[in-house]
Write a structure and sequence with these properties.
5 strands; 207 residues; 5-stranded antiparallel beta sheet; 4 helices; alpha+beta
Length: 207
Amino acid sequence: MGLFKSIKDLSSMTKQAKQLQNQQLAEGGYKQGFSGQMQQMGDLISQGTEQLSELTDSQGDRARLLAEGIAGQATIVGMGTPARGAQWFNLDLDLEVNVSGRQAYRVANSFMVPASASLGAGVTLPVKVDPNDPAKIAIDWDSAPKGPAAGEVRPVAGSGGFAPAPTPSAGGGDDTIAQLERLAKLRDSGALSDAEFEQQKAKILGS
């Protein structure tokens, strides 16, 4: 009975998956069935190829700007939400750009950003600017400030930073025992009264 129920459940899931697939094809303007699936796959491959080509062109243009552009600094005025999880990700940045000999200006654009970058409003980044098109900017991430590494302990402004608790000096416990033994011998010999013994013991134990 359990086997027939499992087969029935599997058949129902397969039917639901096919219906969902046909719905997605219809929403995308594709025909239902195998031909529509192949057309959809072809379009996805084409889109991926275009995106890869755009990324390659962008990286090539960035390399050219870093080699030939005018050096300057750009301060982050606004930014999108970083898509963490990858070594590099695309991020919208609104920058205030300062280049020597030219008036400061603002420009918003999308940039490929490394996961190690220090980001936030007010952060200043080294850039290279196209002399003929100020909207074209390449950020020099190799020279940009890096964010803290995972687990890195850093001091807070105005504090001395994290200091571990002092460790007791080697042999400290043995010294205390030796002092108490000497004190007990003095009491036993009559050199110290019981009251004096208790007083000196309290000093040694720090109580």
